[in-house]
Write a structure and sequence with these properties.
single chain; mainly alpha; elongated; 5 helices
Length: 124
């Protein structure tokens, strides 16, 4: 059975490194869970991925939650799913707080304009 500490550090790392959209996130999950740690077989991973793609919503998030659940039950699913989104959520919260608090200042407005342009370029 996978220790909670390993589950915690692995999914925090995945959450910090997973950017670039669902395809990149799913590939990173595969590399970490199947190839590096061998917590799941290729068949288990692909079956779970197929099921997650049938469900509405973000399949990478669903897959991360399922992997945590498969390894450590309900608590494992909550940990894996939560840590998968936590770094991005914290970053957005910090940027939102900075923008609402200091967005009117000229130097911050210029910085935020650069951030907005970067986000548009990444999304487009």
């Amino acid at each position: 059975m996978t220790p909670f500490s390993q589950l915690f550090t692995t999914f925090l790392r995945i959450g910090l490194l997973s950017f670039g959209g669902p395809a990149a996130q799913i590939a990173l999950l595969h590399r970490e869970i199947v190839e590096a740690r061998q917590w799941l077989t290729e068949r288990q991973y692909l079956q779970a991925l197929s099921f997650c793609m049938l469900l509405p919503g973000p399949e990478a998030m669903q897959l991360a939650t399922w992997i945590g659940w498969r390894l450590r039950g309900t608590m494992g699913g909550l940990i894996a799913g939560g840590l998968f989104v936590l770094p991005g959520a914290v970053l957005i919260a910090v940027l939102a707080l900075a923008y609402s608090s200091y967005g009117a200042r000229p130097e911050v407005a210029g910085l935020m304009l650069g951030v907005k342009a970067t986000v548009i370029a990444l999304v487009a």
